[in-house]
From TrEMBL:
Classification via InterPro entries: Na-dicarboxylate_symporter, Na-dicarboxylate_symporter_CS, Na:dicarbo_symporter_sf
Bilayer-crossing regions: 12-35, 47-68, 80-103, 157-174, 195-213, 233-257, 296-323, 329-346, 353-379, 385-406
Key words of the record: Membrane, Symport, Transmembrane, Transmembrane helix, Transport
Gene: dctA
Protein name, as recorded: C4-dicarboxylate transporter DctA
Pfam family, one: SDF
Length: 434
């Protein structure tokens, strides 16, 4: 059945965001009242995430190859890449400094007086070991897959993007001889997005399992003991979204509120699973439907999952300085600037390692050598709660990045943008032209 007709038939009950909210609420209740049973629901969340990850490689490949091969000017590929990186770096630096100023003013860790020697370092040993293996050269070399096929079997987003760009450029260079392959990829893209649509029917079950596990395993005790950090971080995420993303949205003719409503299904799914990967295929489809050209969406969104992690940057700075405050580690201005400099590099690896932001945090503390690395055991119990905020910001940031680069490149359909997420001014201008 068509999702649109189903929504009309069942009203709000047929909408994905509502179904996921119901699943999330049921998961919270189960985890709270029956924590052991709730923790046992983890496979449901893991299965849903695995189903989506299964589709990420094919969707990125088809979208990127079709977008690049359909271009008449290959120079535009380089321009899109350059503009994307410039925007990613600018917004990343802004996120890092916003988080630093906020945590310095709020001081959520002040007065905790934690002695790092009394912390259980064994609980974070796995993360520390993984962090020690992360190097800049290793990260860059990891973008190149061992074989062409291994990029898809290993499920590495940057590797898939790398091989897809190469294939798209080669297909475009073939001219008429590449037309049959181009048509085949176009048909395959439709089929893969159809599969994604089927998988999303299981989103409420996945949300139920993921949130039941989180509440059942960690409970509400960690919320109370570290409540000030959680409150400060969520407020910073909200302000960054409203102020920074709000300003950027206005500059490119997009209504931030309409954008949030437009991706409400994806926001709810990400909140329940604390993983932006679960909505990557749908985000790419939605930004194309909003008027951004396929060639831009196909590069910007997957690349943004590694290079445009604004929420992760907010998290890394906030938690790092919080741990310094909690352990009475004095940070000078130069220490904090050094932390920002290190995070400009280490934050780019947050999408490519197991444990994601938590591992990058350990790697950053190890690199700076100022804040006790063992102190990250303090936030182990609330990491998934903090992830609610950082994944939301990452999701909105990547959707907005697609519009920014599409605008910058002149690769956007103003009519569709006005109809979906455009500002009132853009809609009036479109109506006047029409």
């Amino acid at each position: 059945m068509n999702p649109a007709s189903e929504t009309r038939r069942f009203g709000v009950f047929g909408q994905l965001w509502f179904q996921v909210l119901v699943g999330t609420a049921a998961g919270i209740a189960l985890g709270h009242f029956l924590p052991t049973t709730g923790a046992a629901m983890k496979p449901l969340g893991d299965a849903f995430i695995a189903l989506i990850r299964m589709m990420i490689g094919p969707v990125i490949f088809c979208t990127v190859v079709h977008g690049i091969a359909g271009m008449n000017d290959m120079k535009s590929v380089g321009r899109i890449a350059l503009k994307s990186i410039v925007y990613f770096e600018a917004i990343t630096i802004l996120a890092l400094f916003v988080a630093l100023v906020a945590v310095d003013l709020w001081k959520p860790g002040a007065g905790m007086n934690i002695n790092p020697a009394n912390l259980d370092a064994k609980s974070v040993a796995t993360y520390l070991h993984t962090a020690q293996e992360q190097t800049v050269s290793g990260y860059l070399l990891h973008i190149i897959p061992k074989t062409y096929a291994s990029a898809f079997t290993d499920g590495e987003v940057l590797q898939v993007l790398f091989t897809s760009v190469l294939f798209g450029i080669a297909l475009a260079a073939m001219g008429e001889r590449g037309k049959p392959v181009f048509s085949l990829i176009e048909s395959l893209s439709g089929a893969f997005f159809k599969i994604v649509g089927y998988v999303m029917y299981f989103a409420p079950i996945g949300a139920f399992g993921a949130i039941a596990f989180t509440v059942g395993k960690f409970g509400s005790a960690s919320l109370l003991s570290l409540g000030e950090l959680i409150g400060e971080f969520f407020i910073v995420c909200a302000l960054f979204t409203a102020v920074v993303f709000g300003l950027v949205s206005r500059l490119v003719g997009v209504s931030l509120w309409r954008l949030l409503v437009y991706i409400r299904d994806e926001i709810v799914v990400v909140a329940a699973t604390t993983s932006t990967e679960t909505v990557l295929p749908r985000v790419m489809q939605k930004m194309r439907d909003a008027g951004c050209k396929e060639s831009v969406v196909g590069f910007v969104v997957p690349a943004g999952y590694s290079f445009n992690l604004d929420g992760t940057c907010l998290y890394l700075v906030t938690v790092a300085v919080f741990l310094a405050q909690a352990t009475n580690t004095h940070l000078t201005l130069w220490h904090e600037l050094a932390l920002i400099a290190v995070l400009l590099l280490t934050s780019k690896g947050a999408a490519g390692v197991a444990g994601a932001a938590f591992v990058v945090l350990a790697a950053t503390l190890s690199a700076t050598g100022t804040i006790p690395v063992a102190s990250i055991a303090l936030i182990l119990g609330i990491h998934r709660i903090l992830a609610e905020g950082l994944t939301f910001v990452n999701l909105v940031g990547n959707c907005l990045a697609a519009v920014v680069v599409a605008r910058w490149e002149g690769a956007v359909d103003d009519r569709r943008l006005a109809e979906t997420i455009g500002t009132a001014a853009l809609r009036r201008r479109h109506l006047a032209v029409a």
